[in-house]
Amino acid sequence: MDVKDNLSLLSRIKNGDDAALEELIKANFGLIKKTALRFLSRGVEYDDLFQIASIGMIRAARDFDFSYGTSFSTYAVPLMIGEIRKYLRDDGLIKVSRNIKSNGIRAMREKEKFENEHKREPTLRELSELCELGEEELVECLDALTPALSLDSPVYDDGASTLGSTVSEKESEVDKLTERIALGESLRRLTVEQRRLLYLRYSKDLSQQKTGELLGKSQVKISREEKKIIEILKKAL
């Protein structure tokens, strides 16, 4: 569907037009299908995955904010994926394939090696190159690792090493990594000026007044913009 058509339907949905919502769902069947198919190996029927992804699409349509400056599909896909993952976790239905499990453990080992050598965490791109995996595939492997594996799971066939011995701070380390990846992807939605504001406020730890002076804005303007950015990131995450 044309971007303008999506935006037209979204405007009608904001005004309570249920027919527009149904039309938007039908027009984006391809996107919903593609999202659902990514989880087909998790032990859930395709029709169920499609319905759950559709719920995510409906949520995205009702929550979409035109001020984000992003396309609807970019906003909707993370919400659809989130709905599916929530369903899988809540129902204890996540079934991690041996390949995904192996790649997830390998990614954590490569991450640890990189940190020891470079004294910093690898970026998503760096880790994907080290593991020879696509960025989306890498995130899926890391995400699947957390709920599905016990810390007593053997890393090697000889059982000498367990997952708990290779992952620092146990499962929370995987959570932290996936959260940082998600945050990094969310920050891409911000403008250059918005990212600079965050850098000055939270990396440089400058006051709103000092940040405003550097950006040529009042303290009140900085405060409002900062609240807007935080809301964007909250919804994206």
Descriptive terms for the model:
3 domains, 237 residues, mainly alpha, 13 helices, Four Helix Bundle (Hemerythrin (Met), subunit A), 72% helix
How would you portray this structure in words?
- The protein is an all-alpha fold and 237 residues long.
- It has 3 domains: 3-90, Four Helix Bundle (Hemerythrin (Met), subunit A) (Up-down Bundle), CATH 1.20.120.1810; 98-186, no CATH class; 191-236.
- The chain is 72% helix and 0% strand.
- It contains 13 helices and no strands.
- The protein has helices spanning 3-14, 18-27, 29-37, 46-63, 72-90, 98-118, 124-131, 135-148, 163-166, 171-187, 192-203, 208-215, 219-236.
- The protein is flat and about 55 Å long.
- The two termini are 26 Å apart.
- The model is unreliable at 147-174 (pLDDT under 50).
Mean pLDDT: 76
Strand-pairing-aware structural class: mainly alpha
Largest sheet: none
Order of helices and strands: HHHHHHHHHHHHH
Write the layout of secondary structure elements.
Layout: H1 3-14, H2 18-27, H3 29-37, H4 46-63, H5 72-90, H6 98-118, H7 124-131, H8 135-148, H9 163-166, H10 171-187, H11 192-203, H12 208-215, H13 219-236
Helix pairs in contact: 1-2, 3-4, 3-5, 4-5, 6-7, 6-8, 8-10, 12-13
What's a concise summary of this model?
This protein has 237 residues and is an all-alpha fold.
